[in-house]
Amino acid sequence: MTISSISSDWQQVLATEFEQPYFQKLQDFLATERQTAEIFPAEADVFAAFNLTPYDRVNVLLLGQDPYHDTNQAHGLCFSVNPGIKVPPSLVNIYKELHADLGCEIPNHGYLVNWAQQGILMLNAVLTVRAHTPNSHKDKGWEKFTDAVISKVNQKTAPVIFVLWGAYAQKKLKLIDTSRHIVIQSAHPSPLSARNGFFGSKPFSAINTALNSIDKPQINWQLAKTI
């Protein structure tokens, strides 16, 4: 994992993190892992969320947990998969709610780059995983790094909308100044919990209403039907 693969604006914002001993230890761990196991996403995609959404363009932060761990799925954005890969169950439910909320047509893919390009930082709390082994890179340093990312976004002078789906994401509420920023939270879209408060929560219209209230451009949620 090379820090040079992260965009220059984020390099500046996160410079002090890259110098921390924990981050060096994390880099060493990942170098060893890549020599001995298959790691997702590909090294070039680890910082994709940052490269697609520059710091000064972050208007929304959507927080996921762990990258997808099956072949060719993960490419550095939470909830998103590469073109040609079957849409995972949580994203199927996200699409169902998006259709119910805004009437958006459901695409035949799970590639969410278009959302990231509109100012949504699509951040996982952990940025890498060993193939077919969920949570295998948990507690190795990524959480400390992504907590710092959330804190840096929290420091932005303009309000940001933080979207926290599920109990894991909602633990990050303590990093957010809710007097300055807007938080939208509900149950997680996973099949295990979607019916406990994700379905019917209308997060997409809520995000656009919030963006409108702070004079930021609304998200065009409609993805290309096919890619």
Automatic annotation (TrEMBL):
One of the GO biological process terms: base-excision repair, AP site formation via deaminated base removal
GO cellular component: cytoplasm
Catalysis: reaction(s): Hydrolyzes single-stranded DNA or mismatched double-stranded DNA and polynucleotides, releasing free uracil
Gene3D superfamilies in the cross-refs: Uracil-DNA glycosylase-like domain
CDD domains: UDG-F1-like
Keywords noted in UniProt: Cytoplasm, DNA damage, DNA repair, Hydrolase
Keyword rRNA-binding in annotation: no
Domain of life of the source: Bacteria
Main localisation: cytoplasm
Pfam family, one: UDG
Domain Uracil-DNA glycosylase-like: 51-211
Active-site positions on this chain: 66 (proton acceptor)
Single annotated GO MF: uracil DNA N-glycosylase activity
Signal peptide per UniProt: none
Family from the record: Belongs to the uracil-DNA glycosylase (UDG) superfamily. UNG family.
Protein role: Excises uracil residues from the DNA which can arise as a result of misincorporation of dUMP residues by DNA polymerase or due to deamination of cytosine.
NCBIfam families: PRK05254.1-1 (NF003588), PRK05254.1-2 (NF003589), PRK05254.1-4 (NF003591), PRK05254.1-5 (NF003592), ung (TIGR00628)
Name of the featured protein: Uracil-DNA glycosylase
Organism: Chamaesiphon minutus (strain ATCC 27169 / PCC 6605)
Upper lineage: Bacteria, Bacillati, Cyanobacteriota, Cyanophyceae, Gomontiellales
